[in-house]
Queue: 2 jobs
Job 1
Amino acid sequence: MNEHLLSMHDVTADDVIRILDTAESFREVGTRVIKKVPALRGRTVVNLFYENSTRTRISFELAAKRLSADVINFSSGGSSVSKGESLKDTALTLQAMGADAIVIRHSSSGSPFQLTRWVRGHVLNAGDGTHEHPTQALLDLYTMRERLGRLEGLRVGIVGDVLHSRVARSLSFGLVKMGADVTLVGPATLIPPDAPQWGVQVSYDLDEVLSKLDVCYLLRVQTERQRLEYFPSVREYARLFGLNRSRVRLLPEGSLIMHPGPMNRGVEIDSDVADLPQSVIEDQVTNGIAVRMALLYLLLGGRHGDGGEAGDG
Amino acid sequence: MASPDLLFRGARVIDPRAGRDEVADVHVRDGIVVDVGSGLDGASAEIVEGDGLVLTPGLVDIHTHLREPGFEQKETIETGTRAAAAGGYTAVAPMANTDPVADDASVIAEVRAAAARAGLADVFPVGAITKGLEGEVLAEIGEMAAAGVRVFSDDGRCVPTARTLRNALTYARAFDDVVIAEHCEDASLSRGQQMHEGISSSSLGLAGQPGAAEDAIVYRDIELARLTGGRLHICHVSSARSVELVRRAKADGLRISAEVTPHHLVFIDEDLRTYDTNKKVNPPLRTEADRDALREGLADGTIDAIATDHAPHAVEEKEAEFDRAPPGTIGLETALAVALTDLVAPGLVSLPRALESLSSAPALILGARDHGGPIEVGRPANLVLFDPEERWTAEPPFVSRSRNSAFIGRELRGRVRSTVLHGELTIAEGKATR
């Protein structure tokens, strides 16, 4: 494993398998009455969140706590960050406090990369701007493998605003790395023009793609005003690219519906579709904790089997 | 203060304007060249040995940001001209985007006075095209032209409407040799941009601006130069298409010139993969094919000049998130070495052509008559002596007050030994004389 996890380009296919296998061994911890192993006892993990993200922050916090690490949450509101302290100064402060790992979420692409120049600890990218969100991609890969038994050859459609989606980038890079067959689907204005160079296919016609998918992965549509220049209306978006009941019928049997959350019900996904059995959105959340445990554990070099409960990974 | 009586002995004298390239002695006294030849007897002159070195007209930068008045935490006229001298420059043209904006003759006079106090380089302030750089009302071009301003630019911003630029090009025709220098960028296409749009921007998750953001405006401006007969200069050309547009406009006989920066001649968009904010520049670094077209355009004369776009920024501004860091790199101290290393050494551009693009060509555009040669008896002694082989690595600290150089860590070849401004050494033995 690389020293940091900044991008899906930092991990090899072998690393991915190791991460998913390790996560599988940690998955069981979450089902116990006492959901804790001592693997990272005495280590300090800082959650440095410059952008609100309750679910990702809680997921990382739980992951670190279940490994018995000390966890510090550092959010932009109500801290020195909101007093105008620079990212570098904040990084140096955390460094001085002995952070072993820093989990960073930031609205600026590349900030986790920059952070590595200023700190000695391990840096985990929990989502940076419109760049990447590798832990989301890994939990999605985990969920696909768990449900469908493989990654190689899987046909995955990623639908929506790929241009601005860090999830789409990380997931595309990860799936291509694992030998899956990825098709990006969305309005032409929201697909990066050079995306085929990622090794993916591009389609502007969801109906045409659906029957050939093992996984239909829906991205959250940003409906802020500045995004609306890319398509005429939310209504037209939902008509062309929203997953509704009749479109679900085009999906082959046994295929999955996924979404990184939070969902815009009625826009990219109809409410009753989100609640169908093949929709595994809650599994994604649960698996996220195990995958993040695995990442913290592997990056921080915890001694595996500490306490003997964590399985065989 | 250095001696005003200097004999440069045995250097290779490259004088692009006179077409001279030979080993010769050059004698300088009281600010002017008093003799050029071989075996000169300098009598009481201080001898500067030039064996193995190159002596050429002092470099001229037609695109510099000295930041004063208004942004002295980044650079001052004194520190900026000191950096210029260290880089072999004897003349620089600071852009108008100061605070207050150089859009009237009083600001121009203030800049000139500060430059004269420093005495490290001749400074030719660029005047704004529009008041406050706001792109609407023409600045007092006539008054500034009367005060000796030759180049006008809203650099950093593109004149937004064709109508305003048309008026500027037309209005400026009334004044001798006035040049309208455009920063070509369609703001609606580049809005929010952090880099060139392409596979690198897609993968790095940074908002891109396509080459078309520049090309569309270069095309517009060329057509307006055609319409008005105005004298147009294209700042920091960055794309292959724009090079081709300039080439055709020149073939059509239009009065047009163009510049390229050292960083666009070296780096490409892929070099941003480490999110190095020192390589965040505007216009952005584009593709390898664009860079190669720029090199070719410089070699064949389509692009007249190398201009640094020396853009100092405070450390804390650049040590920030990529999308918050301001664009720009410093360049005065490295431009000559970069040209020697990346253009001359690999044989892409001849040494005389490289020096022409750094001195005599920009001096012509700027109307800096004392600069850019020829090195002849009676001419003002504005010269640079450099070692074309000395190796060094660009590293902070720099002479500039700022250190945001895209070239940090780069091994360079070629270093200034002496810079002569009106017969006086501002740099001697590679060191500042004061």
Job 2
Amino acid sequence: MDLENQKRVLNLTEEHGAENIVVVLGAAEGEAAGLAAETVTAGDPTFAGPLTGVQLGLSVFHVCEPQIKDEVDAGVYDEQVGMMEMVMDVDDIISEMSSIRDEFCKYL
Amino acid sequence: MNCVIKGASYILAHTPDMVLENGTTQTTEKIVNPNSDYLKELPNHLRTYEEAVKYLPNQTYIGNMHPDQLAEIPQPWTDARIEGMDKRVGKYGEIMPQEEFYLMMQACDVFELVRLDKEFVAAHKEAFLANPVIDESIAARLHEGVDAAEVEHFVNDEHAEPLYHNRKLVGYVKRAHDVDVNLSAHVMLENMVSKASAVLSLLHLLRQEGVNKDEITYVVDCCEEACGDMNQRGGGNFAKSIAEIAGLMSATGCDVRGFCAGPTHAFINAASLVKANTHKYVVVLAGGCTAKLGMNGKDHVKKGLPIYEDMIGGFAILLGQDDGINPVVDTEHTGRHTVGTGSAPQNVTSSLVTAPLEAAGLKVTDVDKYSAEMQNPDITKPAGAGDVPLANYKMIAALAVKKGDLEKSQLATFPTEHGMVGWAPTQGHIPSGVPYVGVCRDDMLAGKIKRAMIIGKGSLFLGRMTNLFDGVSVMINANEGIKEEAAAVSQEEIKSLIGKAMKDFAASMLAAAETDAE
Amino acid sequence: MGFLEGKKIIIIGDRDGVPGPAIEECVKTAGAEVVYSSTECFV
């Protein structure tokens, strides 16, 4: 994850409290989504950014996961994400995200 | 007068040492994690020049292999080899080795900022001068080089950026100002690489049949760098500096920017200049980008893959007045991502694809080939960005189904029939739509296709001035020959037309007066 | 009440997936507050 984004995640978590934060991702593939999810839960796996070794354990979802999709206005979701959902491998994304959450998420 | 595509050139330079020294993934890692395993492991993943030349997507970029042929080779293409596909030169350009590219950079420098070790120059001068695109005027620009001690001095004591070859220090790019960060050695190196690779592209274009450099009156550069000093950081003008080295004595020019969408913006701008008869021949070009070298290197190293992002890219396209033969740029039906479009992927695609098609009265399937973002999937897939061209084609197909232009059962075959596999290096603007222009021209001249669409997209939000995305698109049509202009209207006819109009006007006035009287 | 309601949302969108502003439009409808939205680019 971009170093500036990691810094912002860290600062915002300190400001609002980790239990109040939900991170929503838009990554194109399962693996990239998993890496971003790992970064905001277990720390930066690439050891490059401010989240290296920082286990925030934040709640994190991909926008295509049912937990997010079901809470969002269906019309707006369809308009903003609907077609991209057809293009992405949603099952793969869900499986990557679930495994990271099960292992590292502290606020579910 | 319609604007046609008169020629296109594509070049690569293999720069493995620049991956280590100048790619931002690596320079950032050196700051935050100088002892990282990645930095230790990286050199073991660099390709040799020969490996880079034999890599089929690179052969495709310089025109030795058609994208359709590349599509037949199973991915990944890492180890795929075809006999005979190992040529430095292709019909669109060449793959230049690093040592010659350093000489090219020095030859393109007009401020004595780039200096090479004299032994290095002596060792590679002959090969550089043997290149048929290097004419006498460029040969005369070569400096004999400096002592190794001078190179070390500038690198160690004067903030110069080192130039390494096989990890050995062979030259430097020095800062152009002691205080101004916009003229720092880092910026000068980036700009010099961009300029040199654009010049090389232009030199290849000038050698193509039917290209006359004295006729070119305007050059548009569309790279993603900025040149200027502290009082005008992006003042420009790469275009003219490139035209100068290539000896385009009749040309001026300017820089057009739009992130990765820049080339398509520039292409449309340039085509419109020709269409409006402001210029008869305009070149659109761009050099490559050192910052993006090894951009996704961490993922490539982690997966035991070579560093694919070791190539600097460049291209040059000549647009000119209709000759009745070359493919025509449709300047009237262009797609644009507007401020109001928003960032929903379907809105982006409809503004870029279906909107201009509707305006032209065409269906999605009326376009034979779409060239969106032709990034090589070997590079992007291991990095988690997916197959970018394929995602674009799937999106266009999904929209076509929604509009009733395509049967749902045709969704799966659309990307193969109307798209291509990506073959361009992830050099930002370089893969964006334009790598296909050369192939497109050849295929239209051969009668293989009739209509294509070039789509450029840009991540404007990276500049932190807006959260908006951007994109533009333009269609290219096979030339159907110059149509006869409508017969000229004679002076007599004009007189009689005016006379009739006057009579009609008088009659209507009289009628109105009569009505009023009643 | 959904679990997003009243939450502080951090969005990391993707230029080649779903961009930040598109996700923003979505989560706003669930009563969440977007505190940061960005889009990453790998190409």
